[in-house]
Amino acid sequence: MSLYREEILDHYKHPRNFGVLDDATVTVDGENSACGDRMKFALKARDGVLDETRWSGSGCALSMAGASMLSERIKGKKVHDIESITESDILQMMGGAIVQGRINCALLCFKTLHKGLDLLRSEQNITSTPMPITKKMNISEVVARWPETRLVLSEYNLHCVGCHASSFDTLEAGAKVHGMSEDEIDQMIDDLNIVISHKKQ
Amino acid sequence: MMCKIWAGMNNILNDFPILKRTVHGKRLVYLDNAATTQKPRAVIDALEYFYEHTNANIHRGIHTLAEEATLQYEKTRDETAQFFGASSREEIIFTKNATEALNLIACAYGRTFLKPGDEIIVSIAEHHANFVPWQQLAREIGAIVKVIDIDLEGRLCIHGTKNKEQRTKNKREVEIGCLESLITNRTRIIAISHASNVLGIVHDIAAVVALARPRGIIVAVDGTQAAPHMEINVGKLGVDFYACSSHKMLGPLGVGVLYGRREILNKCPPFITGGDMIKRVTLEKIEWNDLPWKFEAGTPDIAGVVAFGVALEYIRKVGWRLINQHEQALGAYALSQLIQLSGLTLYGPRSMEHRLGVFSFNFKGIHAHDLATILDEEGIAIRSGSHCAHPLMERLGVHATARASFYLYNTKEDVDALISGLMKARKMLG
Q1: CATH code for the domain defined by A6-128
Q2: CB distance A34–B385 less than 8 Å?
């Protein structure tokens, strides 16, 4: 059976999601330097979902069709699910008849996408920097740095924001004074982190 | 005349068992001869015979098998010396491939005799095997690599001063231009291929030697692509080193040949060390073996060397006259058919003058890898990619080409199959 099934040829001749994304979260380049195949993948993710993707590039029919097919497969999917796509999934997606010498062509899209996912992960880590707010932080420092936390603290009845205790109390100590349980404290810290990460976006 | 030659090819075709096999249900059309050639029955039999009757290590044993193996191995050296016109058997060194042979020159000669600031000239059309060892050597000792450019047809610029330019690459100034303009009183080595593995062009080694010889510049030739297709006489060529490969000229894999001028080899230290390359070892000192064994440390591919002798014998029996006539006629036919295809870009000359049946091309914007895969589905084996010649690819401004390369067992039908395969590719992807 030919490697160039109808589906492959169709994607090669009519690439899907081909183009650029002006508001991409990340854009990455991939290249097979030996044969000159190049591609660019733009990913736009929000709340763990890949809202939009575009790719562009030049190269052989396999690398181009692969990128096109993969872009269809990942669009609108959860980033977490996209991360679980394996190399053999890609080869299967392309019909499973890829000879050894062409594996790199078929997998260029996969490698480029993974570069993008890695970058996406690190980007998101920066925005939510694994819990920038911790319960050991000083209340007044937190409020000074992220004024938007004031509202959350009020909701948890921590009205001491303006009181003198806040200048030396940690979030944990302040919360305990107000009789909050460990679980409630953790919940509050989570909420504080969510509020500042949203503000950033 | 073309037809007559091809009609006479039946015997030759029958000598190559692999040509009877099919690939994807189609007759095998093997057009990747610049990568490796197929083996005649006689060579395959020789390998089998060696392992069934002779197998023993050489140069050390006293027993009959060792004696026979040594005799056959050394007899092949005599035949090889004769085949390439070397003045003595000591000038023939067996290596594991042409790459090792070229590295041997760079290491044994280059490291010993080159000094910081000395200059090495290579061509832009070199296979990496004759490019990287020199770059590496230059880096090690602080020498300078200069590069011979190609003209519009792809032929090396030997004479003249034009095209001389500096270009910056990786923060290193590399001078590229005509050979004549690159030579200075610091030039020590010119390392050049006899024929390009990409463009099929046969380089004018005589002209290179004419420039180098009077100035005492060493000429090291990578003959890997040329040796299978033309009679080589290293003495007449006047080169100092000539490297080639068994498997590209009907012989087995695993054997390379280096010819080196005796007086130069004698001055060089060994390339690798170990058994068989020493006369005497004490705790304090070592005494190198004589030529050529000084450069053959360790057990070589004895069966491979013996069978390589059979390959040389096969070529001799068919004869250069017939081989050249056939390849030129077939090459001219292939060339005429290829350039008739609209949308085909051929790299290299459009005539068979000083040219081998090695054709690199791109077609209709179809990637070379796709061409190779589609042709493979038709049973046609070609090569695609950069052909281990990145500097040339960059110079040509392409990432990859498809390459069809012919040999003495290819036929007009093979050319026709290639052309119809390309037309199929055009229909599919063009």
Answers
A1: 3.90.1010.10
A2: yes
